[in-house]
């Protein structure tokens, strides 16, 4: 009866004979329950996908952190600084760090991830779907999976870039950044800087000479995928360091990085920072 086209509207007599009207005590509640079940199924499928992605990220970070720590011990060098990522709770992920444990309510998420040859890991999503055989509405779309994995890549490469900064490793920094990197940061005093020479000064005279521990926490990373070969990440960066008097300090900055993939490799092409300087080690 609410159809815009008058020719397609039903009459009042036809409406009174409709089950929703003549059997409203039984049909309406049954349909409402069915819609509620379908809604819960879709929500559960999204929650499973996020849980699987989170599990993969945690296992990958734990593996890479342990590997780098072993390499440092074998070289007899100074302990490598850490980088922690804490996700926004509003995105459906309560929080994750390199050393936390994640528990999920679904038994499917307890399956061990598959370890690939390059040290990364992926969840056993295909075998889990074969065993449980869920309905078509519960299966995640391939595009959502690829987008989530690409966001994970951006977060991981951002961690590696910050680790290179904390370690004062300019060679590793240049391999992750584009030679024509543009940056807008407090050190540039409100100017847009292009190239690596501006950052090289801080690496050679400050970061590479620092022997005190540094810990960086990335809060609420938000990744926006722009096509197949571009992405943007925004996050809050907390840097814990030891000042000249030996007292622990913490600085905060809001950062945005634009990434572009060339020849299968992600490169940082633009960097924007507001707040405290990114290298507060004076």
Automatic annotation (TrEMBL):
<dbReference type="Pfam" id="PF08332">
    <property type="entry name" value="CaMKII_AD"/>
</dbReference>
<protein>
    <submittedName>
        <fullName>Calcium/calmodulin dependent protein kinase II gamma</fullName>
    </submittedName>
</protein>
<dbReference type="GO" id="GO:0005516">
    <property type="term" value="F:calmodulin binding"/>
</dbReference>
<feature type="region of interest" description="Disordered">
    <location>
        <begin position="89"/>
        <end position="146"/>
    </location>
</feature>
<dbReference type="InterPro" id="IPR013543">
    <property type="entry name" value="Ca/CaM-dep_prot_kinase-assoc"/>
</dbReference>
<keyword id="KW-0808">Transferase</keyword>
<keyword id="KW-0418">Kinase</keyword>
<dbReference type="GO" id="GO:0004683">
    <property type="term" value="F:calcium/calmodulin-dependent protein kinase activity"/>
</dbReference>
<dbReference type="InterPro" id="IPR032710">
    <property type="entry name" value="NTF2-like_dom_sf"/>
</dbReference>
<feature type="domain" description="Calcium/calmodulin-dependent protein kinase II association-domain">
    <location>
        <begin position="150"/>
        <end position="277"/>
    </location>
</feature>
